[in-house]
């Protein structure tokens, strides 16, 4: 029995080492592949920048290079407009393994200082990447919460000292953002839940150790209106969203004149999502069907600070 146990432990150790080597090789190969992607992205953006002064809607500058759905182009446009082209200091919360992230193109192309926060273990492998030693990047491998966000920012010397914030944690985004001092920040990108519609200011409650995986994929985050109201309190101007209807973009009010020609369409246009992560195969009445999946779960109506079920808030009929 002892011999069998020893063999099992040795085999487990070998398997672990093999998987570590595989992951390392994956990241080294990615250095080469992503370098070509960066060069293509730079070329495309150089062409797009010629029209930046004529832009009326954020959707006109969308471009996917490393981001999930066009955020790279929008971020480049915003940085260009505020004349912040070098020495960018940013915080990105919710980056996964950093293969697909909102600030990835920045570190690939501009001198920058950044704090990357995520509990994904594979995030540590970015220390093998070229962009890591080319910039000042700090990694916090932990699950973020409203209670620990400021202590983490203090730990890495980012408390109220960054140009750009990107927040996407599929959960307590509203409550985390509420705790962050943004008075010196210029740009904020935050993920919202388009299923919660355009007219209601609601968020999931501040649930301890919340994990989206423990609930329906539909139950996370806050509505767009909730973020617009919160950011207005923090002296930020809403500029619009990406066309996928999941990321909202804000700039500090001190840049209001810089973006006065940007047309902000009705919020309804920013909640008509089509991505399939939380959709049914049929689009017919899909929002109502999704809301019914979570109808007994609670949301906070933020203006009244009242807890109500999804069914109560959205007048869902019993089926």
CATH architecture: 3-Layer(aba) Sandwich
> Fraction of residues in helices?
25-40%
Largest sheet: 7 strands, mixed
Give the mean pLDDT: 89
Task: Kindly report how far apart the N and C termini lie.
Answer: 58 Å
Kindly provide the radius of gyration, computed on alpha-carbon positions and rounded to a whole number of angstroms.
21 Å
Overview of this structure, please?
This protein is of the alpha/beta class and 319 residues long. The strands form 2 sheets. The protein has a 7-stranded mixed sheet, with helices on both faces. The chain has helices at 2-48, 71-81, 104-109, 130-134, 149-155, 173-179, 224-233, 286-293, 310-313; strands spanning 88-93, 112-117, 136-140, 164-167, 187-191, 202-203, 236-241, 247-252, 298-301, 306-309. The relative contact order is 0.10. It is built from 9 helices and 10 strands. The protein has a single domain (2-313), classed as Vaccinia Virus protein VP39 (Rossmann fold, 3-Layer(aba) Sandwich), CATH 3.40.50.150.
Short characterization:
With 319 residues, this protein is α/β, with parallel strands linked by helices. The chain has helices at 2-48, 71-81, 104-109, 130-134, 149-155, 173-179, 224-233, 286-293, 310-313, and strands spanning 88-93, 112-117, 136-140, 164-167, 187-191, 202-203, 236-241, 247-252, 298-301, 306-309.
